[in-house]
Amino acid sequence: MSDLKTMFQLSGRVHAPAHLSNATLIIIDAQKEYLRGPLALTGVREAMANIGRLVEKARAVKCPIVHIRHLGTVGGPFDPHGERGELVPELLPQGDEHLIEKRLPNAFNGTGLHELLQDLGHLDLIVCGFMSHSSISTTVRATKDYGYRCTLVDDACATRDLPSPHGVVSAEVVHRTEMAIMADNFATLALTKDLV
């Protein structure tokens, strides 16, 4: 058993995972770009299925849902006018759910996300989506800057193999590392089954 502790533990700021009945669910970049091609993610189908379970529960308990969509360049990744930039059909906003469009990994940067969350009135956020090491990491870090308590759903996120000067870093290693970093000082980790 390791004696290592997270920054949250060392500072006495550990918080339990949020409940969908008293939080806002944020789904980041559940877009077709990640299903195939050079940005296809390892485990993306399983993660999207888990996001679907979270959405179903959130709708049942009247939890506000915010969908984030990344806008790329015309003809490039996340083409805002092309199919690859579209949200996957099974996770489209419904009813009074909110859509925020972003151009940078941080979903707060240059968008009205913070103002929307203030209007929704929840301190607790439940975050899921893609990619673990990019928009998830960057946005979760920002939640701390804005004073939110973040629960990050480990098995409702995914990433891809990354090149490095030392060879390929597998998606599994990238994801596990990013989740450990987030759990150290930025978010409480949870699994889908614990929230639904």
Secondary-structure element series: HEHEEHEHEHEH
Structural class: alpha/beta
Helical stretch count?
Answer: 6
CATH architecture descriptor? 3-Layer(aba) Sandwich
CATH topology: Rossmann fold
Shape: globular
How far apart the termini lie comes to 30 Å
Assign the CATH superfamily. Isochorismatase-like
GO molecular function: hydrolase activity
Pfam family, one: Isochorismatase
Protein name: Isochorismatase famly protein
Domain Isochorismatase-like: 24-190
Verbal overview:
- This protein has 196 residues and is of the alpha/beta class.
- The chain has one domain (16-195): Rossmann fold (3-Layer(aba) Sandwich), CATH 3.40.50.850.
- The chain contains 6 helices and 6 strands; from the N terminus they run αβαββαβαβαβα.
- Strands 3-2-1-4-5-6 form a 6-stranded parallel sheet.
- Helix 5 links the parallel strand 5 (149-158) and strand 6.
- The two termini are 30 Å apart.
Characteristic terms for this protein:
196 residues; 6 helices; 18% strand; single chain; 6 strands
